[in-house]
Design goal:
Length: about 400
């Protein structure tokens, strides 16, 4: 039966190849879209786990993927720090972050504003590979947070302001971003970032002073105090907080208590649940991707159905001969299913191959994107291909099985 099915398909090789290619393109679209969404979310969630903290405090209404606002004034940090029990403050450290945007590595990156003194809490076990984790920014942060510092001084000119800000214009990047680098205007080639390179951010020239291991929460860090000074004229607002608790404090109970204290303006989540929060924030985009992939696959399998239906029409006389020779209705249905499965499995193989090629291409064009073609996703693609092939063959197979032998033999 397999040999007969193969011979039938090879009778029109172009049609069979186009059907398999159509399935392959649908499978590729599904794999790449889901792999890109899942891989990116998983990577960000893994990097967030590097922060030495147990809780995250987020804006109640904002989407955590797209927000770059700073809704939390300084009083929120004080509320968190004041929470105590019989053994003292619940939090060992409250770690504010301020988000901005920066163009590096050929695409927009989220810029993490952090207090230079708290940078070790963001690094966790990651090492410094080159330079220093901020150089003069530590002194800048202390000066700007000193209540005795009046900045900008009254009647200060631009030169005085630039001189005051110069020490804080520093960036720390991760090693993956360093290797991706920038496009050299003279050679047209990408060259790695180096210590001392200058990047324009918010209208000012920042310099790279350190490179850390890949896997830190952000790819680019700048002094929190500097970003606040540029974006908010020094207002001590934050985009989110990480909270490091005492070792003996239950994170779930602490999260509930902080949520009650901070009210409706904030939500307090376990850092370990950050991946789930990302997936929830990405749900609408993921729904669109699933819908578009599903529509593409439906069209592909309708293409198989049309192909099988056309084959049945073309072979009406041959089907009559087979039935007159004793071939049963079930055998004809099985023949149709086998032919459709050959097309769909070939399409799955093509689709998986194109998906890996697309991942390689994206790795060249957008090296900071992560496309995760996991084994579970590949198995899902195979299952979709097999199921779609079987369903596409049922009606054409049923029609072939129902043909009257006498009518079929008289067909011209």
């Amino acid at each position: 039966m397999l040999a007969l099915a193969w011979a039938n398909l090879m009778h029109n090789k172009v049609r069979t190849a186009l059907s398999a290619l159509a399935v392959g393109l649908g499978i590729m679209l599904m794999l790449v879209s889901k792999g890109l969404a899942g891989g990116s979310i998983a990577e960000v969630a893994r990097r967030m786990q590097s922060v030495d903290a147990e809780l995250v405090v987020l804006p109640a209404q904002d989407n955590i993927i797209f927000t770059n606002s700073a809704p939390f004034p300084r009083v929120f940090r004080k509320y968190i720090e004041k929470q105590t029990d019989e053994n003292g403050p619940l939090a060992i450290a409250v770690i504010p972050a301020f988000f901005g945007q920066i163009h590096m590595g050929g695409q927009q990156q989220r810029l993490f504003g952090v207090d230079p003194a708290q940078m070790p809490l963001f690094l966790g076990l990651r090492r410094v590979l080159a330079g220093r984790v901020f150089d003069r920014a530590h002194d800048f942060a202390r000066r700007i947070e000193d209540p005795a510092t009046e900045f900008p001084p009254e009647n200060a000119d631009e030169q005085v302001i630039n001189a005051f800000l110069a020490d804080g214009l520093e960036l720390v990047i991760d090693d993956r971003l360093r290797r991706v680098g920038r496009l050299d205007e003279q050679s047209g080639q990408r060259v790695p970032y180096e210590i001392g390179d200058e990047i324009r951010v918010m209208g000012r020239q920042f310099r790279i002073v350190g490179v850390v291991e890949t896997g830190v929460a952000g790819r680019v860090f700048a002094p929190l105090q500097m970003l606040r000074e540029i974006a908010l004229a020094g207002e001590t607002k934050s985009s989110m907080f990480f909270v490091k608790l005492r070792p003996d404090v239950d994170p779930v109970a602490a999260a509930d208590r902080l949520a009650a204290v901070l009210g409706n303006a904030a939500r307090v989540e376990l850092k370990s649940e950050y991946g789930k929060l990302l997936r929830d924030s990405f749900a609408q985009v993921n729904m669109y991707m699933n819908a578009s992939s599903g529509l593409a696959l439906a069209v592909c399998f309708l293409f198989i159905l049309l192909t099988m239906y056309t084959i049945v029409l073309e072979r009406t006389r041959e089907i009559g001969i087979l039935k007159s020779l004793g071939v049963t209705r079930f055998d004809l249905l099985r023949l149709s299913v086998i032919e459709a499965l050959i097309i769909s499995i070939a399409g799955v193989v093509i689709g998986i191959g194109i998906s890996f090629a697309a991942r390689w291409g994206l790795g060249i064009m957008r090296p900071l994107l992560t496309v995760d073609l996991s084994m579970n996703l590949l198995i899902f693609a195979v299952a979709i291909g097999v199921l779609g092939g079987v369903l596409s063959a049922l009606y054409p197979g049923y029609r072939a099985a129902r043909l009257d032998p006498a009518v079929a033999l008289s067909h011209e």
